[in-house]
Automatic annotation (TrEMBL):
UniProt keyword terms in alphabetical order: Hydrolase, Metal-binding, Metalloprotease, Protease, Zinc
Gene name in the database record: radC
CDD domains: MPN_DUF2466
Upper classification of the organism: Bacteria, Bacillati, Bacillota, Bacilli, Bacillales
Domain MPN: 85-207
UniProt family annotation: Belongs to the UPF0758 family.
PROSITE patterns xref list: MPN, UPF0758
InterPro entries xref list: MPN, RadC_JAB, RuvA_2-like, UPF0758, UPF0758_CS
Pfam families the record matches: HHH_5, RadC
Gene3D superfamilies per record: 5' to 3' exonuclease, C-terminal subdomain, Cytidine Deaminase, domain 2
Name under which the protein is recorded: DNA repair protein RadC
């Protein structure tokens, strides 16, 4: 589809022309550009010398404008990285194990997912000893709502290297499930990472609420 230089495009161009520019009315210059180059494609294919023929355009402004087009084109052509899909505790473990397994403090991370279980964002929410007073559902679900996440997987490490769940781990898991049932954003699992293995609280039967 050919993009016409409408009012919003003119305004954007005027803003670019205003950066580092002196004198002249950038909005008037943008209108003159649209008279000569009625589409974004035509404008992007103009040379610096062509643009300098327009009243109000300088060599510096022309270079700035064409540089903006170059950045935009590269952004569109840049390969889109696939969002990883997290469908199992193994997937969560593989994603985070190298980062978490050798840390000397507990780190509590949430993997926020969309409806296709694709990773939207990963957030380290807490650092330190894990207990229900520190890991509060309010903070976990505040991020989930901000990201419009459909669900999430909680992950944390045991610096001792032993991924055996503690009483605090069980309590935190239960509270996240309960809160998720209320908010409508499911906590799919709580994965504990040890030095060379992991434990899924879901698979252990602690998250069946």
């Amino acid at each position: 589809m050919t993009m016409v230089l409408d009012r919003s495009a003119e305004t954007a161009i005027a803003s670019l022309l205003q950066i580092g520019g002196r004198g002249g009315d950038p909005h008037a210059t943008a209108r003159r550009l649209s008279d000569v180059y009625p589409t974004l494609r035509a404008l992007s294919q103009a040379s610096v010398s062509d643009l300098c023929q327009i009243e109000g355009m300088t060599k510096k402004k022309a270079e700035q404008l064409l540089a903006a087009f170059t950045i935009g084109i590269r952004y569109v052509e840049e390969p889109k990285s696939e969002m990883p899909t997290i469908r199992s505790p193994q997937d969560a473990y593989e994603l985070l194990r190298n980062e978490l397994r050798l840390l000397n403090q507990e780190h509590f991370v949430c993997l926020y997912l969309n409806t296709k279980n694709q990773l939207i964002a990963r957030k380290t929410l807490f650092v330190g000893g894990l207990n229900s007073s520190i890991v509060h559902p309010r903070d976990v679900f505040r991020e989930a709502l901000k990201l419009s996440a459909a669900c999430f997987i909680a992950v944390h490490n045991h610096p001792s290297g032993d991924a055996t769940p503690s009483r605090e781990d069980i309590e935190v898991s239960e509270r996240l499930v309960e809160a998720g049932n209320i908010v409508g954003i499911a906590c799919l699992d709580h994965v504990i990472i040890g030095e060379d293995h992991y434990v899924s609280m879901k698979q252990r039967g602690y998250m069946n609420g």
